[in-house]
Design a protein that fits this description.
heterodimer, A: 251 residues, six-stranded mixed beta sheet, B: eleven-stranded mixed beta sheet, 10 helices, 23 strands, 22% helix
Chain lengths: 251, 482
């Protein structure tokens, strides 16, 4: 589904990602771990098409298409979803109104009929259950006055409604207490299926206790230093990122 | 390499959809302004002598005045002798007695503007007075309103049919000496709407006036007078459009509201005069004086305006809070795109005790637009316990536009509490990217965010028009983001 080859990315002229290769198949869950500044959030943003990130070399192919040639909204139409590390507040804009605008734009793109208010509302009610989201958040302004946990739940709720093919979750675990983490992770697990790929970008191993990945990649200095299964994350937990760094230095 | 480029909307600017001209035979007088013209207008309208006298006094006063230069706008000098001061569709004669007599071309025009005048097709619960250039061409639901004792008619009819009310109230809120444009209007005003809500009546429907400028080189000078007697209630809405033309046209209106004891007047405006093209050519000069007098105790006047049109807007809907415990409100959204300029705001004059006022102003600037909020909160000596809350927010889109705030406060009563909050923000890349990532196009995202910014004002509009206002914001912003 997703094929990243020799990806190099600079931000404001400074190289951040220095040659990433990654293959993700439908149905897989990949975890990308790494210390601060390793380039993992940059990778997430490049996949979503955020401006300010310059791809200086390499290719990203998604469902047979050149992903980098698409604008961010086109990527969303094609099924790419980014759960933000810091979900953005939009004062005065109703939370589910924005979501409806997004969903209907995606449906239009696929030649499907737009959902009317009634159908949309019943869809929303159903999907809110997936992350145990409080109904009162439905009609508040987008992320405004939401707690950290509520914001992250809202991201996964949006994912549930938009039903992406490729979901990139950028540090969805950060700032969550254990209960919120469990319920957000539970939501993500319910959204796993054979047609959907998920990339979890995370600093900590603990998220992977709840969402068990098929593959774990460890990123440092803008490159994938090691790839393994769940046990790699546990090893990392034991030794810390310094362990990878020294190995990378040695290699 | 692959960097992300957004498509700038370079499509032909089709955003102003009301820019058509109705081809209709008009009775227009020669351009120019002198006492004879004033007499001619009065004669054409069969006015009683008191009205002509008043016009002439206003005209003589106007001649002693200068165009105001204090607003933060750049105006090309206006030659008042080049303007046509009266133009009416010929077919009207002495005014249609019923809708069946209205020229079909006019009905078609309003149909096209989304204002069907046939009562069976009309917006449910809204009575409309349609003003075309200098005259009112149709008023709907007159009879139904009359049953409730409400008078809703063209201003000219009111001058003839209810001269005692006109004499009592005309100029009592905005005297002809008030300012340059008010004086001009008082001399040459041609039509407008008159509303009278008698004691204890809650007006059974929304009232609205739809102003349309059609004829070339014509100025529109209408007057609206709304009187709400004790314990009455009325909600009134006005809308405005004009054809697309390369030259500027002047619209100088006066609106006077009078609220007696416990009366409530809600006045909403959706102003969408032709704003000029993307290079700032053409468009309406909208120089308007609007003022409400809370004359009675516990009375309330609430202004809501959505100003998206006009090349230049100069207007300050105000409240004189004379009655004890009276309440004044001003909710405003003003949007300037391309080369539009707006200098708008309000005056809240606290005279009575425990008077309260609220000002919520949202200014949006895009393109080369210049947007100024100008407001005065004045608390007089006797206004014990007066309270004002002002919130003034500006939103900038792009880096060639400007937002300015000119708040004035004159407080001479120590018990008064006056609060002012102001903010200026830009639509952030973060907000845009967030919307884009959810599949929303860049233009839709901007309009979503702007509508959110305006929400506090839109919720004050009558339901039917809140939707319209939101849509209007989107089209007015088209091409504003690249």
């Amino acid at each position: 589904m997703l094929s990243i080859k020799d990806l190099h990315v600079s931000v404001a002229g400074k190289p951040i990602v220095n040659g990433i290769d990654l293959e993700v198949k439908a149905g897989e869950v990949h975890a990308i771990m790494g210390p601060n500044g390793s380039g993992k959030s940059t990778l997430a943003h490049v996949l979503a098409g955020r401006s300010g990130y310059e791809v200086t070399r390499g290719t990203v192919t998604y469902m047979g298409k050149d992903l980098l040639a698409l604008s961010p909204d086109e990527r969303a139409h094609e099924g790419v979803f980014l759960a933000f590390q810091y979900p953005v507040e939009i004062p005065g804009v109703n939370n589910i109104y924005m979501l409806k605008a997004g969903l209907n734009a995606i449906r239009r793109h696929h030649g499907e009929e737009e959902l009317d208010a009634v159908d949309f509302l019943s869809l929303v009610r159903e999907k809110m259950k997936i992350v145990n989201m409080d109904e009162s958040l439905m009609n508040r302004s987008v992320n405004e006055g939401f707690s950290g946990g509520e914001k992250k739940r809202n991201e996964i709720f949006q994912m549930a409604v938009l039903e992406p093919r490729l979901a990139v979750l950028d540090e969805t675990d950060s700032g969550l207490d254990i209960d919120a983490l469990k319920s957000v992770a539970g939501g993500v697990n319910k959204l796993r299926n054979k047609d959907r790929a998920i990339i979890l970008v995370t600093h900590y191993q603990r998220l992977l206790d709840y969402i068990v990945p098929d593959k774990v990649h460890v990123l440092a200095h803008g490159r994938i230093q090691r790839t393994g299964d769940k046990s790699l994350a546990l090893e990392l937990e034991k030794h810390g990122y310094g362990w990878i760094g020294s190995k990378a230095g040695a290699a | 390499m692959a960097s992300i480029k957004y498509d700038i909307n370079t499509a032909v600017d089709q955003r102003y959809k009301h820019g058509f001209v109705t081809d209709i035979e008009a009775d227009s007088i020669e351009p120019g302004l002198n006492e004879d013209i004033v007499r001619l207008i009065s004669r054409k309208k069969n006015e009683p002598p008191f009205m002509l006298e008043w016009r002439l006094k206003a005209f003589r006063h106007w001649k002693t005045m200068q165009d105001p230069a204090w607003a933060h706008v750049r105006v090309e000098p206006i030659n008042y002798q080049d303007i046509i001061y009266y133009s009416a569709p010929k077919s009207r004669d002495n005014g249609p007695k019923s809708l069946d007599e209205v020229d079909p071309k006019l009905l078609e025009t309003y149909e096209k503007l989304g204002i069907p005048l046939h009562e069976r097709a009309a917006l449910a619960g809204v009575a409309v007075d349609a003003v075309f250039d200098s005259v009112s061409v149709a008023t709907t639901f007159k009879d139904k309103l009359a049953e409730a004792g409400v008078i809703f008619c063209p201003f000219s009819d009111a001058v003839r049919d209810h001269p005692e009310l006109i004499q009592q109230y005309l100029g009592s809120v905005v005297p002809y000496t008030d300012n340059f444009y008010a004086a001009l209007n008082s001399a040459v005003f041609s039509d407008g709407s008159f509303v009278f809500i008698p004691k204890g009546v809650r007006c059974p429907m929304e009232l609205s006036t739809y102003f349309r400028i059609n004829a070339r080189n014509t100025g529109q000078f209408e007057r609206t007078l709304i009187i709400a007697e004790d314990n009455s209630h009325v909600s009134y809405l006005e809308g405005c459009t004009a054809p697309m033309r390369d030259e500027n046209q002047l619209h100088a209106a006066v609106v006077e509201l009078v609220a007696l004891d416990n009366a409530k007047i809600k006045y909403s405006t959706v102003q969408n005069w032709y704003p000029g093209d993307e290079n700032g050519r053409g468009g309406i000069y909208n120089f308007v004086t609007k003022r409400g007098d809370c004359r009675g105790v516990n009375s309330k006047i609430s202004w809501t305006q959505v100003e998206t049109g006009s090349a230049i807007t100069w207007k300050y809907p105000s409240c004189v809070l004379r009655g004890d415990n009276s309440v004044g409100e001003f909710y405003s959204v003003a949007l300037t795109n391309n080369y539009q300029q707006a200098d708008t705001g309000t005056k809240m004059i606290h005279i009575g005790k425990n008077t309260r006022s609220t000002i919520i102003s949202k200014g949006i600037s895009a393109g080369h637009g210049q947007n100024s909020y100008r407001g005065l909160v004045k608390v007089l000596k006797g206004a014990d316990g007066a309270r004002n809350y002002t919130q003034c927010d500006s939103l900038l889109i792009g880096d060639k536009c400007g937002a300015h705030t000119f708040p004035y406060m004159e407080v001479t009563n120590p018990t008064a509490i006056v609060e002012h909050e102001a903010s200026t923000s830009k639509i952030s890349e973060d907000q845009l990217f967030y919307c884009l990532q959810r599949g929303i196009s860049r233009e839709d995202a901007v309009s979503l965010i702007v509508n959110g910014f305006c929400k506090a004002v839109f919720k004050e509009l009558p339901m039917e028009f809140a939707v319209e206002a939101g849509r209007l914001m989107s089209v007015s912003l088209e091409g504003a983001v690249g």
